[in-house]
Amino acid sequence: MLCFLTILIGALCLSIAFQPGRALEELRGTLYNDLRTSEGAKRQQQRFCGPLVAMTFNFVVSIGIIMTNKVVMVKVGFNYPILLTLIHYAVAWVLLGIFKTLALLPVSPPSKSTPYTSIFSLGVVMSFASGLANASLNHNSIGFYQMAKIAVTPTIVFAEFILFNKTISRNKVVALGVVSAGVALAQVTDLQFNFFGACIAVAWIIPSAINKILWSNLQQQANWTALALMWKTTPVTVLFLLALMPWLDPPGALLFKWDIQNSSAILMSALLGFLLQWSGALALGATSATSHVVLGQFKTCMILIGGYLLFESDPGFISICGAIVALGGMSVYTSLNLRETKKESSGPHQKQTLPLSKPKTELEPTPEETSEDVETLSLLSSNAV
Questions:
Q1: Where are the domains of the chain?
Q2: 182 with 325: CB under 8 angstroms?
């Protein structure tokens, strides 16, 4: 009897000891199985990278890459913005290839759900948006560069209305106008006009807006995850950056001093560039293109105010007032977004019944669609009872 109790207690202790390992193994198996389907991978991304996490991640990485790129372009003297962007995307593609080899890359949605033309268009737009952004920063002052970014906001609103018939409330329009005016005041003391740089800045506005819209739409409507979409679009982006490099970069890239110190700084910039692309894609998938632009303007204001408070820089009274006005507009815009989110989450049943009512202008449904609608209505009525 004593021997039996000893064996029973030993077995119980072993089961308790191995319980955490079993739970960890089950969690690992669940994550692995979720990565095998696009819907499961999308659920995991939404679970671990909500709007607050994604936008905070993007904010921190953006600050890091600004400092790193400043070192690369000023101290290292690497004045080849398109080539630097190309190195960023090439390193990102290599890292994504390693993820795919280790079975850590989420599965893409079926090819029938997303035409290849959409993936190709996004890759092309990404090359122009990223390449022209670095070229604009290289040829313009920071103030003029930020002024050009202000024009992205109304461009996104107009493009979403044309492409998807999407509108925003009047209160949001007023809040975005306050944000744009505040950022303009904050950067008015650092305006230096350069005709060639101005042309690049204007040419960058439309690709930047379309890039953000496509990233947000494909993730929210077609079950794409950030990493899977990056894997598909990066090769196209690399090819078009190669085509842009002779036109926008100065000659002499091969004569640059590629020693260990300079190469390490450029490689660090490339790693941060991968994190910036990933975090930006996560933020666009979790929020919207307009919210991502507002986040970028928030970073600008925080850098200006942080420099004034921490490093005793003196941007001027007008710039500080503009930054404060912009932050106030961002607070109002954020509160309006949260209020709309609460309204949407409080009425899920109304949202489910909306797709069942079809406009009169649509074609007559097929028998299969009619039977599916009847079954859905019967299930809803039985649940209501």
A1: 49-106+113-340
A2: yes
